[in-house]
Amino acid sequence: MVRLLNEIEQQYEQLYQPKDEEAITEQWMKIRQVAMPSFMAYFNQGPLNYEEQGLWWLNRLYPSFDELIVAETGLTVADFDAFYQQLDELMQQNFQSFMSPRAPMRPDWRTYTKVVMRNTAPPALQAFLTPKKEALFHFMADKGIATRFFPVELVSPALPLEKVEKLLALLATTRQATDFLYYTSTKPANPLLARPIVDLGDGLYQVFEVKQVLHAITAILDRICTSTNASKRRYISLKGKLLEDKLVVLFENFFPGCQIFRSYYVDGNEQDILVLWENCAFIVEAKGYNLREPLRDPDRAFVRIQDDFDACLGYGYSQTRRVEKKFIEGVPLRLTDEHGNLRAEIDTRQYAHDFSIIVNLHSFGQVQCDLSALLKLGNDDVFPWAIRLDDLEVFLLTLLAQKKTPRDFVDFLLFREELHGKLTCLDELAICGGFLSGQLTAKSTRQRKYVTVHPDLADVFDEQYRKGMGFENEKLLVEKRSGNYLFM
Predict the structure, then answer these.
(1) Nearest of 290, 214, 231 to residue 64 by alpha carbon
(2) What is the three-class DSSP state of 403?
(3) Distance (Å, rounded) from C-alpha 397 to C-alpha 178?
(4) Rounded to the nearest 10 degrees, how much is the dihedral formed by the CA atoms of 98, 100, 101, 103?
């Protein structure tokens, strides 16, 4: 399987190689330096976040659309949430029943596997094969024994069997022949993305990746909530408000004693968030722009990527630049409301550092990590920091968990400005992880012409998550902090 996937990726790379007698110009190189990594990142990365982050949106964005959702599915957002929570808890319990000596064995565990194992050990050793060890050996031979279930196992006081069956009708598929060939195919797409639960027959189901169920639920609710022009406008408006709400909470918790302005106006133009902390100003713009699928043809792909980039990151920078210019020039920054009434006047000379930060919901991959390919700057301007909301949250929470200070964050932003123009990276968290681990520093990168960031540098965040990240309503936090458990 690995060999086949590598061969597929190598074939995609051929799309970006020069054709016979094709002139290789500077523009030809630029187009492919943008198009190829954008294509690879779009399909290879998938949704990278932690389940608590997905659940945050599930329980804040969609309940306002319950009337629409019930009309189409007969289910509320609370039902979708209860289904996912029950399924996730069951999978964790099953895993612990095989892997943890403290956990009770799963009842009737043989029901969930067709694997038959024989004890061929010498008679003197057979007695050492306890029922718990026998179950463990079966699990090692058939991992699916922990991820198969019957619908009745998901029933709870909040989720009767009738609703479990309705949800399985939306989220389960059967094994059948389709025209789907490989992971970059979208018409048809991988059926397990939209329906990540498999109906094995005889009432038995299997889930391969529990978190994909949450992504599939989100996709269903997104489609319903944007099914009419009116609901789509309401959905976009609420999503933008929630995005700003979350940013404000993140910055309030990270910068003690900071002053925050949101939905303010400068010279008649609306701005999102301004954070003032000690002698630092953070000018933040929030973007909920959705990325379109990259095209296979490099020239057409480049045009689409540039358009999407300009509409999201480019426009965000033009907004932050308006405010940043006041700090650079050292002139008073007048913040007003939409009617022009003065809310505050900031003496910009009191701030030694000002940073433009653009926070979006989806990443552009390479061209977001290194903005130099598509973002045009004026003389003496510095690049903003562009980051996904989920990545920003994880970085700030990890800084707090590791007893770092806001000054460490400021040092990171100053360091980050220097990397544009020489960076190869698809994941901003790999850069953040390299900074946290000390493997990426200003000293080690300043004199280098090219800086390639290995994706493994982001592992520091998974390590922190296994110990406790600090999310609101973080799952299994007590078990994580005990250090006595393994998790799926």
Answers:
(1) 231
(2) coil
(3) 43
(4) -80
**pLDDT tops 70 at residue 39:** yes
Residues 85-110 pLDDT 10s: 999 999 999 999 988 888 888 989 98
Question: Which neighbouring-strand residues pair with 353?
Answer: 280
CA 33 to chain centre: 24
Residue of 163, 157, 165, 154 whose CA lies nearest to 210:
154
Global pTM exceeds 0.90? yes
Residue with tokens 């939209």: 194
Angstrom distances, CA of residue 4 to CA of 7, 8, 11, 12, 183:
5, 6, 11, 13, 12
Instruction: Collect all residues with Cβ–Cβ distance below 8 Å to 191 and sequence separation of at least 6.
Output: 173, 178, 180
Nearest C-alpha neighbor of 319 from the set 274, 261, 288: 274
Tell me the two tokens of residue 47.
């949704």
The token duo for 367 is 């061209």
Strands 451-452 and 333-336, bridge-based pairing: unpaired
Bridge-based pairing of strands 423-424 and 451-452 is parallel
Q: For residues 164 and 154, give the distance between their C-alpha atoms in angstroms, rounded to a whole number.
A: 7
- DSSP per-residue string spanning 201-234: ETTEEEES-HHHHHHHHHHHHHHHHTSSHHHHHH
Cα–Cα distance measured from residue 336 to residue 271, given in angstroms and rounded to the nearest whole number: 10
CA 401/CA 399 separation, integer angstroms: 6
Element (H, E) at 61: helix 51-61
